[in-house]
Write a sequence for this structure.
């Protein structure tokens, strides 16, 4: 066979080729437009038709065999290369890495979002109110009359400014929004009111002059202590992501009756106070121009800082307002 | 308030639970117990009596009654007293109350033949347990009765009252036929003074109620005590006291509270009066005082004068079982309700499905049916009420769009590497002066000058955050990004309270980060779907800061529809210096949240994706440095018209190889036709036209 030698020559070269580049060159040398196999076709062009047909077939066969061989070799090289990468390349998993800095949200925002999400899923609407309040909404409307010792429960920052002869203050709790909302909305209703509040207090590890509360209010024809317990247990279970044992202790807030404190049981068995609550006092309905005989409701208020401190085991409330990057980065 | 365990025990035959156990029981049914402390043979409990229960529970008797109700224990009755008044010559006085609103009732008991000495040990011990200093048997008895039943009492030396009058009138003390002493309850006059038992002199005025003595002989008046708060030194009991007048009164709570605040004088008596007291308590006080005087053999009991205007009768409240059940949301047995109310000293009469409840006069806190619900609830135990989900309409909660937008702002800024901070709503007096701030809202009673005003913007405190963090980071190159959302305050005609979003970028290198911040602002506006905004650097007025906060040449107001929505710029180096921020630059923005909310488009519509490929051409142009790029862009956009899909600024350069005062600016022009594939030729035609238009300006040269 006259092309046998050429075939062996090419096959040997393919055999020896180590890289894809080598193969490309072989392809060019033999199969390219000026390649040796192409040349063979032009050599037979002057032969008789029979010979042309016979040789042509042989050349075509040779061409196919070469192409096939090259393809096989290519696959082999690919496979080899992958194997080589797999064997040669490695990492050191213990090596410290550089972390691209990202922004962060404040822990109070994170926890407030969680609280709002849980109450939203229970059908509560989120409502806000002003931070500068009148004496009426902050105290009188909530059944805390002037010169009543109950006012001592809320140490107040007063403003030098007045509005329509009414004394103005920085709201000491989010409860004024109860009245503001009830005045303008018809029950049944379910709201939570997150917001900043202010107390005239000495700053220490558990007291700040401004902090945040989340107030809750649910009003309907018949709302009971049992209903409050169910809602608040559901909330706490979701918030702390586990079964939480709670207890209600008697307390006093002028705007709820009965009033209670809610404690949760800690791991060590001790009880931790986390919110105040109660059934909406008839006077609050009356002051909101609603008939107390038509409606019942519960209200509660919890400290956002306190819940965040419990959640992340933060020992000092002042950390929230120092805004140290080393603190903020942790959340 | 401090209570003695032994004293509480003395009300019962049966043994009480141990102090810790008793505290737990009280906590679950009545009041929190702050602490338990061993004191000699006694234990003292610090019980946080709730303010509404002060009238009946600022006393051992009151707490003992609570314990009795909770544990179902009977209290021993007080011993019955028999009195045969011993009338002496001096025992002739009358009580005059000037204004019945100020004093509802005034009782006074006369004692003669008094022997002042130390009290017996048991009595002293009880006072000491409760934190009171024993003084002498008379004073101790008045204090004892206050701690026991809650009625403050005060003892006057009657002879001293008389002697004082005498010294004033220079007449010998005569006890003639018409001898009579008037004790007057009246308002002080401005300028009146009194030397009180605490050796301090108090200036009095018309808002302060006093006890005065008036004599018939010369019509003179002497102030004996600040009513309900503190006695006077001049009529104090001492070792030589022979005749005593013991006061047990009921003063107006508001009046006592105001006077106590005004004089900055809080006493065991004033605390009790300002919380209101049952006027009938005076009768029990009289009984207890007399019993103790006799028991301790202090002296002879004389007449008792009791002046009152209106009797306090027990309130009657009607309450239905259904109301109780509906409030609890559980079934509670009717017999149990009745039993609980009776244990609490309520008189209960059953009338079909209702109860008619008579409230003891000491329980000033019980006025409405719901108040009785609370009483039943706490003794029954709120823990015994099983949770039940409310049966309500499954109504979808309304979304609070403002909070949703605020959260979007927070998340966008976080993605732009900002850290969120929470600062105080206050700024200091020093801040006001340093930055010449105006129209601030001032706190009437600031906790210190550090927190004297409400913040007019968020930037001042954000700058403080940068300063505070600088020292923790050290000297290497760094950038800090902070943002805050919150309320700021100012006053113009009215008081303004506005929600603001502000951010700062600090770099300690001298980098120009203005455009970086502008980019962030644009991402923010785009994410909030606030479109059609533009910057204005001519008619400038910052929203919440003043102009001098900003670099004169690097600042602009951000507008939408001609309304100012925000402000952006570099903070003036002079401000940084005042802030003691060393080295570096701060770039900042502030947005009026209300405006962002107003212009944020709620409806977003999908825009069809282009079907054809874009053709891209870059264009570099040499322009004078003061040229505003918007002029160049306007020409490009107006000439390119609809097939010019987008223009990006990809490079600016000045320096080597560029003529002095000029700048080379490169734009990337993206051509795209929505309806067909553009060919190179079509694009070149338009691109050349743009170049031609640009070069009409003699100062501009397109680089080829």
């Amino acid at each position: 066979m006259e092309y046998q030698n050429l075939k062996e020559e090419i096959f040997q070269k393919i055999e020896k080729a180590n890289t894809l580049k080598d193969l490309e060159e072989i392809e060019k040398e033999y199969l390219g437009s000026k390649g040796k196999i192409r040349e063979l076709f032009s050599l037979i062009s002057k032969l008789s038709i029979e010979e042309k047909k016979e040789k042509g077939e042989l050349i075509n066969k040779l061409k196919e065999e070469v192409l096939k061989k090259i393809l096989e070799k290519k696959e082999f090289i690919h496979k080899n290369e992958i194997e080589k990468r797999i064997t040669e390349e490695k990492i050191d998993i213990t090596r410290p890495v550089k972390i691209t800095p990202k922004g962060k949200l404040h822990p109070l925002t994170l926890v407030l979002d969680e609280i709002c999400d849980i109450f939203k899923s229970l059908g509560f609407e989120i409502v806000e109110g002003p931070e500068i309040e009148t004496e009426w909404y902050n105290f009188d409307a909530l059944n805390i009359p002037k010169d009543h010792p109950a006012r001592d429960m809320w140490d107040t920052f007063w403003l030098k400014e007045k509005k329509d002869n009414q004394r103005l203050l920085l709201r000491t709790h989010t409860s004024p929004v109860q009245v503001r909302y009830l005045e303008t909305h018809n029950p049944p209703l379910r709201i939570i009111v997150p917001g900043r509040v202010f107390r005239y207090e000495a700053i220490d590890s558990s007291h700040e002059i401004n902090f945040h509360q989340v107030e809750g209010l649910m009003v309907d024809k018949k709302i009971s202590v049992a209903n409050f317990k169910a809602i608040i247990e559901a909330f706490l279970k979701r918030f702390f992501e586990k079964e939480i044992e709670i207890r209600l202790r008697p307390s006093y807030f002028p705007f709820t009756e009965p009033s209670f404190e809610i404690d949760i049981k800690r791991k060590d068995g001790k009880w931790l106070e986390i919110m105040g609550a109660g059934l909406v006092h008839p006077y609050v309905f009356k002051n909101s121009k609603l008939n107390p005989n038509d409606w019942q409701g519960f209200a509660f208020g919890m400290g956002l800082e306190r819940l965040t401190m419990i959640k992340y085991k933060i020992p000092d409330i002042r950390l929230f307002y120092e805004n140290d990057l080393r603190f903020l980065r942790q959340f | 308030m401090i209570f003695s365990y032994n004293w509480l025990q003395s009300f019962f035959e049966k043994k009480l639970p141990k102090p810790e156990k008793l505290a737990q029981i009280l906590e679950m049914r009545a009041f929190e117990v702050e602490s338990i402390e061993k004191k000699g043979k006694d234990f003292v409990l610090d019980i946080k009596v709730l303010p509404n229960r002060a009238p009946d529970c600022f006393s051992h008797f009151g707490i003992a009654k609570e314990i009795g109700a909770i544990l179902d224990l009977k209290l021993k009755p007080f011993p019955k007293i028999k009195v045969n008044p011993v009338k002496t010559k001096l025992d002739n006085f009358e009580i005059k109350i000037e204004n019945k609103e100020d004093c509802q009732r005034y009782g006074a008991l006369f004692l003669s033949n008094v022997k002042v000495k130390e009290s017996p040990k048991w009595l002293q011990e009880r006072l000491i347990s409760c934190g009171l200093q024993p003084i002498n048997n008379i004073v101790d008895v008045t204090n004892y009765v206050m701690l026991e039943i809650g009625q403050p009492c005060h003892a006057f030396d009657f002879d001293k009252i008389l002697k004082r009058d005498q010294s004033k009138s220079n007449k010998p003390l005569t006890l003639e036929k018409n001898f009579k002493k008037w004790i007057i309850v009246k308002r002080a006059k401005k300028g009146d003074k009194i030397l009180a038992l605490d050796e301090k002199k108090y200036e009095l005025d018309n808002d302060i109620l006093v006890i005065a003595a008036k004599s018939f002989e010369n019509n003179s008046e002497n102030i004996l005590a600040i009513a309900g708060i503190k006695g006077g030194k001049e009529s104090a009991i001492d070792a030589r006291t022979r005749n005593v007048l013991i006061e047990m009164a009921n003063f107006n709570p508001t009046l006592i509270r105001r006077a106590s605040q005004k004089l900055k004088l809080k006493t065991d008596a004033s605390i009790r009066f300002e919380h209101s007291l049952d006027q009938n308590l005076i009768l029990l006080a009289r009984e207890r005082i007399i019993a103790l005087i006799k028991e301790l053999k202090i002296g002879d009991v004389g007449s008792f004068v009791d002046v009152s205007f209106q009797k306090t009768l027990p309130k009657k409240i009607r309450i239905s079982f259904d109301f109780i059940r509906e409030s609890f949301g559980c079934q509670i047995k009717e017999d149990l309700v009745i039993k609980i109310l009776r244990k609490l000293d309520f008189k209960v009469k059953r009338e079909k499905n209702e109860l008619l409840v008579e409230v003891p006069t000491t329980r000033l806190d019980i006025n409405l049916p719901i108040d009785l619900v609370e009483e039943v609830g706490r003794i029954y135990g709120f823990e015994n009420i099983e949770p039940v989900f409310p049966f309500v309409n499954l109504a979808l909660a309304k979304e609070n769009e403002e909070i949703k937008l605020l959260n979007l702002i927070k998340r966008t800024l976080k993605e732009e590497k900002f850290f969120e901070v929470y600062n105080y709503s206050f700024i200091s007096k020093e801040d006001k002066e340093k930055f010449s701030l105006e129209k601030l809202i001032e706190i009437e009673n600031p906790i210190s000058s550090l927190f004297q005003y409400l913040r007019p913007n968020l930037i001042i405190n954000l700058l403080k955050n940068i300063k505070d963090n600088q020292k923790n980071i050290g000297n290497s190159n760094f950038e800090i990004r902070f943002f805050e959302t919150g309320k700021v305050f100012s006053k113009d005609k009215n008081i303004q309270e506005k929600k603001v979003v502000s951010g700062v970028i600090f770099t300690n290198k001298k980098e120009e980060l203005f455009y970086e911040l502008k980019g962030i602002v644009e991402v923010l506006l785009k994410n909030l779907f606030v479109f059609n905004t533009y910057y204005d650097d001519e008619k400038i007025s910052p929203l919440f800061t003043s102009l001098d906060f900003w670099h004169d040449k690097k600042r602009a107001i951000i507008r939408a529809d001609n309304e100012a929505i925000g402000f952006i710029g570099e903070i003036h180096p002079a401000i940084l210096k005042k802030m003691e921020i060393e080295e570096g630059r701060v770039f900042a923005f502030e947005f009026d949240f209300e405006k962002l909310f107003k212009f944020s488009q709620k409806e977003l519509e999908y825009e069809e994706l282009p079907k054809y490929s874009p053709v891209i051409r870059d264009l570099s142009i040499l322009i004078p440095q003061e040229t505003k790029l918007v002029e160049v862009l306007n020409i490009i956009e107006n000439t390119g018209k609809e097939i010019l899909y987008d223009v990006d600024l990809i490079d600016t350069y000045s320096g080597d190889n560029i003529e002095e005062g000029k700048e080379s600016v490169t734009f990337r022009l993206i051509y795209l036709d929505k309806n067909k594939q553009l060919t190179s030729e079509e694009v070149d035609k338009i691109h050349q036209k743009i170049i031609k238009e640009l070069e009409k300006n003699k100062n501009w040269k397109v680089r080829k």
Q: What stands out?
A: The radius of gyration of chain A is 41 Å.
